[in-house]
Amino acid sequence: MARIAVFNQKGGVGKTTTTLNLIAALAREGFDPLAIDLDPQAHLSQICGARVNTAAESVYGFFRDSRPLMDLVRNANAGWEVIPSHLELSKVDTQFGKGPNVLNRLRIGLEREQLNGVRPVVIDCCPMLGVLSLSAIFAADRVLVPVSADFLAETGALQVEKTLNALQRVLGHPVQRRYVITRFDGRRKMSWEILERFKSHFGANLCESRISETVAIAESPFSSQDVFAHAPNSRGAADYRALFEELDSAGFFGVRRVALPEPAVAYA
Ligand SMILES: Nc1ncnc2c1ncn2[C@@H]1O[C@H](COP(=O)(O)OP(=O)(O)O)[C@@H](O)[C@H]1O
Ligand SMILES: [Mg+2]
Protein backbone atom coordinates (compact mmCIF):
# COMPACT_ATOMS: atom_id res chain seq x y z
CA MET A 1 0.00 0.00 0.00
CA ALA A 2 1.33 3.40 -0.90
CA ARG A 3 2.53 5.54 1.94
CA ILE A 4 4.05 8.65 0.45
CA ALA A 5 6.20 11.21 2.26
CA VAL A 6 6.23 14.57 0.49
CA PHE A 7 9.63 15.78 1.56
CA ASN A 8 12.25 18.41 0.87
CA GLN A 9 14.16 20.10 3.67
CA LYS A 10 13.83 23.39 1.81
CA GLY A 11 10.76 25.48 2.60
CA GLY A 12 8.50 27.12 0.03
CA VAL A 13 9.06 24.50 -2.68
CA GLY A 14 5.44 23.36 -2.84
CA LYS A 15 5.30 20.38 -0.44
CA THR A 16 2.02 21.40 1.15
CA THR A 17 0.54 22.54 -2.17
CA THR A 18 1.52 19.24 -3.79
CA THR A 19 0.17 17.17 -0.87
CA LEU A 20 -3.13 19.07 -0.96
CA ASN A 21 -3.64 18.75 -4.69
CA LEU A 22 -2.53 15.12 -4.93
CA ILE A 23 -4.86 14.16 -2.07
CA ALA A 24 -7.65 16.07 -3.83
CA ALA A 25 -6.92 14.30 -7.12
CA LEU A 26 -6.83 10.91 -5.37
CA ALA A 27 -10.18 11.61 -3.70
CA ARG A 28 -11.74 12.77 -6.96
CA GLU A 29 -10.56 9.63 -8.74
CA GLY A 30 -12.23 7.32 -6.25
CA PHE A 31 -9.30 6.48 -4.02
CA ASP A 32 -9.86 6.96 -0.31
CA PRO A 33 -6.76 8.92 0.66
CA LEU A 34 -5.61 9.87 4.14
CA ALA A 35 -3.43 12.94 4.60
CA ILE A 36 -1.13 13.35 7.59
CA ASP A 37 0.08 16.85 8.39
CA LEU A 38 3.50 16.39 9.96
CA ASP A 39 4.55 20.03 9.81
CA PRO A 40 4.13 21.95 13.09
CA GLN A 41 3.24 25.01 11.00
CA ALA A 42 0.01 23.13 10.25
CA HIS A 43 -0.50 24.82 6.87
CA LEU A 44 -2.23 21.81 5.36
CA SER A 45 -4.59 21.50 8.35
CA GLN A 46 -5.39 25.18 8.06
CA ILE A 47 -6.02 25.18 4.31
CA CYS A 48 -8.25 22.12 4.36
CA GLY A 49 -10.31 23.33 7.32
CA ALA A 50 -9.10 20.81 9.89
CA ARG A 51 -7.28 23.05 12.35
CA VAL A 52 -7.52 21.79 15.95
CA ASN A 53 -7.41 23.85 19.14
CA THR A 54 -5.30 21.57 21.31
CA ALA A 55 -2.12 19.64 20.61
CA ALA A 56 -3.74 16.49 22.03
CA GLU A 57 -6.23 16.48 19.14
CA SER A 58 -3.44 16.64 16.57
CA VAL A 59 -0.88 14.05 15.47
CA TYR A 60 1.09 15.20 18.52
CA GLY A 61 -1.50 13.28 20.58
CA PHE A 62 -0.18 10.15 18.87
CA PHE A 63 3.48 10.91 19.63
CA ARG A 64 3.01 12.24 23.19
CA ASP A 65 -0.05 10.44 24.53
CA SER A 66 0.03 7.30 22.36
CA ARG A 67 -3.47 8.07 21.12
CA PRO A 68 -4.53 5.84 18.23
CA LEU A 69 -4.12 7.58 14.88
CA MET A 70 -7.71 6.67 14.01
CA ASP A 71 -8.96 8.83 16.90
CA LEU A 72 -7.23 11.85 15.42
CA VAL A 73 -8.68 11.66 11.91
CA ARG A 74 -10.78 14.68 10.86
CA ASN A 75 -12.78 15.54 7.79
CA ALA A 76 -11.31 18.16 5.52
CA ASN A 77 -13.69 20.68 3.92
CA ALA A 78 -13.50 18.75 0.69
CA GLY A 79 -14.60 15.50 2.34
CA TRP A 80 -11.36 13.51 2.44
CA GLU A 81 -9.68 12.66 5.73
CA VAL A 82 -6.68 14.21 7.43
CA ILE A 83 -4.77 13.85 10.69
CA PRO A 84 -4.05 17.47 11.55
CA SER A 85 -0.97 19.08 13.02
CA HIS A 86 -0.40 21.62 15.79
CA LEU A 87 2.43 24.01 16.64
CA GLU A 88 3.42 21.88 19.64
CA LEU A 89 4.33 19.04 17.29
CA SER A 90 7.71 20.77 16.96
CA LYS A 91 8.50 19.41 20.46
CA VAL A 92 8.82 15.92 19.00
CA ASP A 93 12.18 16.98 17.60
CA THR A 94 13.58 17.53 21.10
CA GLN A 95 11.39 15.57 23.53
CA PHE A 96 11.75 11.96 22.58
CA GLY A 97 15.41 11.66 21.52
CA LYS A 98 16.42 10.46 18.07
CA GLY A 99 16.41 6.70 18.65
CA PRO A 100 14.68 4.01 16.64
CA ASN A 101 11.66 4.06 18.98
CA VAL A 102 10.56 7.51 17.99
CA LEU A 103 11.71 7.20 14.37
CA ASN A 104 9.68 4.02 13.86
CA ARG A 105 6.64 5.09 15.86
CA LEU A 106 4.60 6.42 12.94
CA ARG A 107 5.40 3.41 10.76
CA ILE A 108 4.38 1.02 13.51
CA GLY A 109 1.25 3.07 14.27
CA LEU A 110 0.14 3.00 10.63
CA GLU A 111 0.81 -0.71 10.37
CA ARG A 112 -0.77 -1.62 13.71
CA GLU A 113 -3.94 0.28 12.89
CA GLN A 114 -3.83 -0.99 9.31
CA LEU A 115 -4.23 2.54 8.04
CA ASN A 116 -2.00 1.58 5.18
CA GLY A 117 -4.36 -1.18 4.14
CA VAL A 118 -6.52 -0.14 1.23
CA ARG A 119 -5.93 3.58 1.23
CA PRO A 120 -3.02 5.70 0.10
CA VAL A 121 -1.47 7.77 2.89
CA VAL A 122 0.24 11.05 1.98
CA ILE A 123 2.41 12.74 4.61
CA ASP A 124 3.20 16.46 4.35
CA CYS A 125 6.66 16.95 5.89
CA CYS A 126 8.18 20.01 7.53
CA PRO A 127 11.09 21.89 5.96
CA MET A 128 13.90 20.36 7.99
CA LEU A 129 15.48 16.96 8.38
CA GLY A 130 14.74 16.16 12.00
CA VAL A 131 12.85 13.48 13.89
CA LEU A 132 9.53 14.39 12.26
CA SER A 133 10.72 14.14 8.66
CA LEU A 134 12.74 11.02 9.38
CA SER A 135 9.64 9.45 10.98
CA ALA A 136 7.72 10.24 7.81
CA ILE A 137 10.40 8.72 5.57
CA PHE A 138 10.64 5.63 7.82
CA ALA A 139 6.85 5.27 7.66
CA ALA A 140 6.68 5.80 3.90
CA ASP A 141 7.45 3.40 1.10
CA ARG A 142 7.86 6.18 -1.45
CA VAL A 143 9.11 9.74 -1.28
CA LEU A 144 7.89 12.52 -3.51
CA VAL A 145 10.27 15.46 -3.61
CA PRO A 146 8.93 18.77 -4.91
CA VAL A 147 11.78 20.91 -6.23
CA SER A 148 11.16 24.49 -7.17
CA ALA A 149 12.65 25.82 -10.39
CA ASP A 150 14.94 28.39 -8.83
CA PHE A 151 18.64 28.86 -8.38
CA LEU A 152 19.04 27.54 -4.82
CA ALA A 153 16.77 24.56 -5.40
CA GLU A 154 19.42 22.48 -7.12
CA THR A 155 21.72 22.32 -4.08
CA GLY A 156 18.74 21.46 -1.89
CA ALA A 157 17.57 18.70 -4.23
CA LEU A 158 21.03 17.14 -4.41
CA GLN A 159 21.13 17.19 -0.61
CA VAL A 160 17.79 15.33 -0.51
CA GLU A 161 19.18 12.71 -2.92
CA LYS A 162 22.24 12.26 -0.71
CA THR A 163 20.09 11.97 2.42
CA LEU A 164 17.77 9.39 0.84
CA ASN A 165 20.75 7.35 -0.36
CA ALA A 166 22.25 7.41 3.14
CA LEU A 167 18.89 6.41 4.65
CA GLN A 168 18.67 3.41 2.32
CA ARG A 169 21.67 1.96 4.11
CA VAL A 170 20.02 2.50 7.52
CA LEU A 171 16.66 1.14 6.40
CA GLY A 172 18.17 -1.78 4.49
CA HIS A 173 15.92 -1.28 1.46
CA PRO A 174 15.76 1.10 -1.48
CA VAL A 175 13.79 4.29 -0.98
CA GLN A 176 11.64 4.68 -4.07
CA ARG A 177 11.48 8.36 -4.98
CA ARG A 178 10.27 10.78 -7.61
CA TYR A 179 11.22 14.42 -8.04
CA VAL A 180 8.69 16.92 -9.38
CA ILE A 181 9.53 20.41 -10.54
CA THR A 182 7.19 23.01 -9.08
CA ARG A 183 6.78 26.76 -9.49
CA PHE A 184 8.05 26.49 -13.07
CA ASP A 185 8.04 29.75 -15.02
CA GLY A 186 8.68 29.04 -18.71
CA ARG A 187 9.26 32.75 -19.40
CA ARG A 188 12.52 32.54 -17.48
CA LYS A 189 15.50 31.12 -19.35
CA MET A 190 16.86 29.94 -16.02
CA SER A 191 13.85 27.63 -15.52
CA TRP A 192 14.72 25.69 -18.70
CA GLU A 193 18.37 25.44 -17.68
CA ILE A 194 17.39 24.15 -14.25
CA LEU A 195 15.07 21.63 -15.91
CA GLU A 196 17.97 20.24 -17.98
CA ARG A 197 20.18 20.01 -14.90
CA PHE A 198 17.50 18.17 -12.93
CA LYS A 199 17.06 15.76 -15.86
CA SER A 200 20.73 14.93 -15.76
CA HIS A 201 20.77 14.57 -11.96
CA PHE A 202 17.65 12.48 -11.51
CA GLY A 203 16.98 10.81 -14.88
CA ALA A 204 13.87 8.61 -14.78
CA ASN A 205 13.15 9.65 -11.21
CA LEU A 206 12.25 13.14 -12.43
CA CYS A 207 8.55 13.40 -13.27
CA GLU A 208 7.82 14.49 -16.81
CA SER A 209 4.94 16.60 -15.54
CA ARG A 210 5.93 19.99 -14.17
CA ILE A 211 3.87 22.31 -12.04
CA SER A 212 3.80 25.86 -13.36
CA GLU A 213 3.89 28.93 -11.16
CA THR A 214 0.28 30.08 -11.46
CA VAL A 215 -2.10 32.52 -9.85
CA ALA A 216 -4.76 29.81 -9.43
CA ILE A 217 -2.40 27.63 -7.36
CA ALA A 218 -1.22 30.60 -5.31
CA GLU A 219 -4.78 31.82 -4.63
CA SER A 220 -6.58 28.53 -3.97
CA PRO A 221 -5.47 28.29 -0.28
CA PHE A 222 -7.14 31.66 0.38
CA SER A 223 -10.47 30.07 -0.43
CA SER A 224 -9.50 26.95 1.58
CA GLN A 225 -9.64 24.91 -1.59
CA ASP A 226 -7.50 22.70 -3.76
CA VAL A 227 -6.83 23.97 -7.25
CA PHE A 228 -9.41 21.63 -8.83
CA ALA A 229 -12.22 23.14 -6.76
CA HIS A 230 -10.91 26.70 -6.95
CA ALA A 231 -10.13 26.92 -10.66
CA PRO A 232 -10.96 23.65 -12.42
CA ASN A 233 -10.08 24.92 -15.89
CA SER A 234 -6.82 26.58 -14.91
CA ARG A 235 -3.32 25.66 -16.00
CA GLY A 236 -2.53 24.81 -12.38
CA ALA A 237 -5.37 22.27 -12.22
CA ALA A 238 -4.23 20.76 -15.52
CA ASP A 239 -0.65 20.48 -14.23
CA TYR A 240 -1.63 18.73 -11.01
CA ARG A 241 -4.03 16.46 -12.95
CA ALA A 242 -1.17 15.49 -15.29
CA LEU A 243 1.14 14.82 -12.34
CA PHE A 244 -1.51 12.64 -10.71
CA GLU A 245 -2.02 10.67 -13.93
CA GLU A 246 1.69 10.21 -14.49
CA LEU A 247 2.24 8.93 -10.95
CA ASP A 248 -0.89 6.76 -11.09
CA SER A 249 0.11 5.06 -14.32
CA ALA A 250 3.59 4.47 -12.91
CA GLY A 251 1.95 2.65 -9.96
CA PHE A 252 3.21 5.26 -7.51
CA PHE A 253 0.00 5.17 -5.46
CA GLY A 254 0.18 1.41 -5.42
CA VAL A 255 -3.52 0.79 -5.03
CA ARG A 256 -6.43 -0.08 -7.15
CA ARG A 257 -9.17 2.48 -7.21
CA VAL A 258 -12.16 1.97 -4.95
CA ALA A 259 -14.96 0.71 -7.18
CA LEU A 260 -17.41 3.50 -7.77
CA PRO A 261 -21.04 2.67 -6.96
CA GLU A 262 -23.18 1.35 -9.79
CA PRO A 263 -25.19 4.16 -11.38
CA ALA A 264 -28.73 4.27 -10.06
CA VAL A 265 -31.19 2.58 -12.37
CA ALA A 266 -33.85 4.98 -13.53
CA TYR A 267 -37.28 3.35 -13.60
CA ALA A 268 -39.89 4.76 -15.89
N1 LIG B 1 2.89 26.26 -8.53
C1 LIG B 1 2.70 27.31 -7.72
N2 LIG B 1 2.27 28.50 -8.24
C2 LIG B 1 2.08 29.56 -7.44
N3 LIG B 1 2.27 29.55 -6.11
C3 LIG B 1 2.69 28.42 -5.54
C4 LIG B 1 2.92 27.24 -6.31
N4 LIG B 1 3.33 26.24 -5.46
C5 LIG B 1 3.34 26.78 -4.23
N5 LIG B 1 2.97 28.09 -4.27
C6 LIG B 1 2.88 29.01 -3.14
O1 LIG B 1 4.17 29.10 -2.57
C7 LIG B 1 4.11 29.13 -1.15
C8 LIG B 1 4.90 27.95 -0.60
O2 LIG B 1 4.29 26.74 -1.03
P1 LIG B 1 4.10 25.53 -0.01
O3 LIG B 1 3.34 24.47 -0.70
O4 LIG B 1 3.53 26.03 1.29
O5 LIG B 1 5.60 25.10 0.19
P2 LIG B 1 6.27 24.17 1.33
O6 LIG B 1 5.19 23.33 1.91
O7 LIG B 1 7.31 23.39 0.61
O8 LIG B 1 6.88 25.11 2.33
C9 LIG B 1 2.63 29.10 -0.79
O9 LIG B 1 2.19 30.42 -0.59
C10 LIG B 1 1.98 28.49 -2.02
O10 LIG B 1 0.64 28.93 -2.19
MG1 LIG C 1 4.53 23.11 3.90
From TrEMBL:
Keywords: Hydrolase
Enzyme Commission number(s) of this protein: 3.6.-.-
Record has Hydrolase as a keyword: yes
Tagged with keyword DNA damage: no
InterPro entries hit by this protein: AAA_dom (IPR025669), DNA_Partitioning_ATPase (IPR050678), P-loop_NTPase (IPR027417)
MF-aspect GO terms: hydrolase activity
Occurrences of domain AAA (ranges): 3-170
EC main group: hydrolase
PANTHER family for this protein: P-LOOP CONTAINING NUCLEOSIDE TRIPHOSPHATE HYDROLASE (PTHR13696), PARA FAMILY PROTEIN CT_582 (PTHR13696:SF52)
Protein name: Sporulation initiation inhibitor protein Soj
Species of provenance: Usitatibacter palustris
